[in-house]
Design brief:
Helix content is 53%, strand content 11%. It has 73 residues and is mainly alpha-helical. The protein is globular and about 40 Å long.
Amino acid sequence: MTIIIHIDVMLAKRKMSVTELSERVGVTMANISILKNGKAKAIRLSTLEAICEVLECQPGDILEYRKDKDTLE
């Protein structure tokens, strides 16, 4: 299972920088970058809520589930 995070897409749509998002959400730029680059192992629901509020989007706009290709059906 793979969860893809599309924060970069939403930032581009909103013409917002990582710096501005981190300041408005109250999360470090390093943590936003970890999310943006798909390196995060977890995200707090309160952080997801704050990101969605700032970006004016739904969780499904920034999170995507992809089934592993190696997984048997």
